[in-house]
Amino acid sequence: MSRPDAAIALAADTPIPRDAEGPIFAEPWQAMVFALVVELQNRGVFTADEWAQALGAEIREAVAHGGCRDGSDYYERWCEALEHLLIAKGLASHDGVDALAASWARAAEATPHGQPILIENDPLKS
Amino acid sequence: MSGHHHHDHDHHHDNHFTPIEARVKALESLLVAKGYVDPAALDAIVETYETKVGPRNGARVVAKAWTDPAFAERLKADGSAAVAELGYGGRGGEHIVACFNTPNEHNLIVCTLCSCYPWPVLGLPPVWYKSPPYRAKAVIDPRGTLADFGVTLPEGQRIRVWDSTAETRFIVIPMRPAGTEGWSEEKLASIVNRDSMIGTGLPRVEDAL
């Protein structure tokens, strides 16, 4: 496996972030994207090795562009790696995910407080 | 990730998805609709890793290795099988290799590629384990990395760095501290913290139950 050369170059001037047994997931969506990847591997949709390669590629690209230096945007990389792997497998399209995400965002805005957010609540949904 | 929603306080909405929340929700609903994932299985995974699995599983493995020489031998020979004896298993596929610290050698685990981690025994990785600086520095300057964590080893103790892969995950088995003779497995497990099983820390006798 290749090493993240860009990360090594950055290491000298970036301190190691610490946490004192901090939260496992900072936010619920991180736990969900984590669970999606585990379940898709359980189901054999992709392998652990395919996943490691996909995630490694996203992290290398993010580091090369100046992000992902302290690990704080790590689960964003999971989300991107998952989307790209699903597209590569022909199971999703970028435009399709974009449209669905926009629909969920509108549904959330349109859902009154205290009620579950359902995609049916998207006012533009046909 | 700031960890906060970006509310516009002049225009407050009761319900709001950040872009990343909407994107994950989109991926989830798409995969559920196509039948690639089962919502109940997703819930079970989240619950498992949030609450059930954690470094306590690994601590039990270490405590048993300290008190049961035959188990320690099996753990050395085949980590996955020995860990399975205690009911801990992975998703299948990846092997768990136990790296025993000795007076001559201290073990440190890292994943330089991404963040492969022995989830079944240690739960989810800490933030710093996933960070590029740790992943890089652990390889090029392990002694300096340990110093960052406040750990100083004797000069004569070598540091061996294990680079995890999708197929092989490592767990460090620290040395049993002096002064713990006659302790129960449960009491021993209470001093085995997560970092001591990554190699960035040592068991702390003062943490004993």
What percentage of amino acids of chain A are in beta strands? under 5%
Strand order of the largest sheet of chain B: 1-4
Task: Determine the fraction of residues in helical runs of chain B and give it as a percent range.
Answer: 40-55%
Strand composition percent of chain B: 5-15%
Report the uncertain regions of chain B: 1-13
What does the oligomeric state look like here? heterodimer
| Individual helix count of chain A | 5
Largest interface: A-B, 75 and 63 residues
Summarize the helix and strand pattern of chain A as letters. HHHHH
Description:
The complex is a heterodimer of chains A (126) and B (209). Chain A has 2 domains: 1-14 and 22-92, no CATH class; 94-126, no CATH class. Chain A has helices at residues 5-11, 28-42, 48-64, 74-88, 94-110. In chain A, helix 3 (48-64) crosses helix 4. Chain A starts with a helix and ends in a 16-residue tail after the last helix. Residues 1-23 of chain A have low confidence and may be disordered. Chain A has 126 residues and is mostly helical. The two termini of chain B are 36 Å apart. A two-stranded parallel ribbon of chain B has the order 1-4. Chain B has 2 domains: 15-50, no CATH class; 54-207, Alpha-Beta Complex (Nitrile Hydratase, Chain A). Chain B has helices spanning 19-33, 39-52, 55-67, 69-77, 79-85, 119-122, 127-130, 132-140, 142-148, 185-189, 194-198, and strands at residues 95-100, 105-110, 158-163, 168-173. Chain B is globular. Chain B is α/β, with parallel strands linked by helices and 209 residues long. Chain B contains 11 helices and 4 strands; from the N terminus they run H-H-H-H-H-E-E-H-H-H-H-E-E-H-H. Chains A and B meet through helix 1, helix 2, helix 3, helix 4 and helix 5 of A and helix 1, helix 2, helix 7 and helix 8 of B.
